[in-house]
Amino acid sequence: MEACAVTPDYFRAMNIPLLRGRYFDDRDNRSFLAGRDLSKLNEGEKTLAGINVIIVDEEFARHYWPNEDAVGKRIRLGSDNSAPQLTVVGVVGRVKMEGLSQDSHRVQGYFAYAQLPPSGMTVIIKAVGDPNVLLASAREQVKAVDTDQPIYNIRSMNEIRAESVAPERLNLTLLSIFAGIALVLAIVGIYGVMSYSVTQRTHEIGIRMAIGAQPRDVFSMVMRQGMILALISVAFGLVGAFGLTRLMATMLFDIKPTDPATFAFIAILLTGVALLACYIPGRRATKVDPVVSLRYE
Question: Which of 155, 173, 195 is the last residue of a domain?
């Protein structure tokens, strides 16, 4: 289980939605230990004895209590019968604690900071506007409590998020550049092939026009033949992309590797590019002079 100790306002500051139950509040402290004899417990056991509530994520609730309301359920913190029992007081949305591209697939639980205070802590400040403006004020507030308390690793959430996806962003940037180059080469290639085809068939086109073919018929013929080749190429490309997108799964967020909308958009885009690349040679074919083309042979 991924677990951390948080204060009552942590979830609001991090915009983690409350799905059922409640957040922690001031009642979630160690006051319930008053009058209990803890002399026979070691330090670790004393610490754990002060926990009686927990907030779990939706995956925790789905895994252990499918089709049930997890709020009010009790779990034992350990396999020993003497281990403390915790009451689930809330269910919150799942978060990726290690990074946007990483998911441990483990359930998540949150303890009340007042019941399980760790040796160190991370302070999260939710600000309106530029968060860097609050840095000086935050440092002064900490110094007012403890002048010897070190403050380090101050970062905004945007910086943390950017660092988390930096490798994926670099890979996708390079991939986008190469994809753009490939698209340009595809356009030039289609245009070159169609232009060369029209040049090679100048005599044929002249004969067709000499025996009565209209410019629109010639244009339709060139466009039809070019688009047939383009559509066959797009079909093969989609099949290849469908197989290779599995390798990009770790670079995508909230998008499936086989997202139908993306595949449809790319297919339409490439078809439009092919249509444009065939248009110019097609228009040029309609201007072939039958007399000149026949004399050429």
Answer: 155
